[in-house]
Design brief:
By secondary structure, this protein is mostly helical. Helix content is 70%, strand content 0%. Helix 2 packs antiparallel against helix 3.
Length: 152
């Protein structure tokens, strides 16, 4: 028997741990953009990277990372936060890291790949039962009952 079937809380614990880890990382990156560099600094950096609409893109990246991270930690509006963070990471991949190779120590895309993929996971899987979303929207749907198979 699979552990998730025997202990149905395990997938929700996994979603919680993943949400907290990704949320903290995204909050840190959004906070850094907001406080250390500021909107003008992020805009200047994005302009230097030839990112379209650098001022709008800077605001999007800063606030999606900061508020999306908070949403993940709280477990509120997780599918929306996951989708917006995945879009943010797709932009980071496309405009900054794609041509730098795989490994992040050389400016490559491995870090944004895992952040984007994990964000997409939350967009598709949701927050799990240990979340505000679960309290507001009823938690996980119950699985269809398993059919008994004839034993020979």
């Amino acid at each position: 028997m699979l552990p998730a079937r025997r202990f149905p809380v395990l997938p929700d614990l996994g979603l919680l741990v993943g949400r907290l880890a990704l949320g903290v990382i995204m909050i840190a990156h959004g906070w850094q953009k907001l406080t250390d560099v500021g909107h003008a600094g992020v805009t200047k950096m994005f302009k230097g990277l030839d990112i379209p609409l650098p001022s709008v893109s800077a605001a999007f990246a800063t606030w999606v990372e900061l508020l999306g991270g908070v949403a993940l930690v709280a477990g509120v509006l997780v599918p929306l936060a996951g989708l917006l963070l995945a879009v943010d990471m797709a932009g980071a991949f496309w405009f900054v890291h794609m041509d730098q190779g795989f490994f992040s120590d050389k400016g490559g895309y491995e870090f944004v790949l895992i952040l984007g993929a994990t964000s997409l996971l939350f967009a598709l899987a949701g927050a799990g039962r240990f979340s505000v979303d679960s309290l507001l929207f009823g938690g996980r749907r119950t699985a269809a009952p398993e059919r008994e198979t004839a034993r020979v």
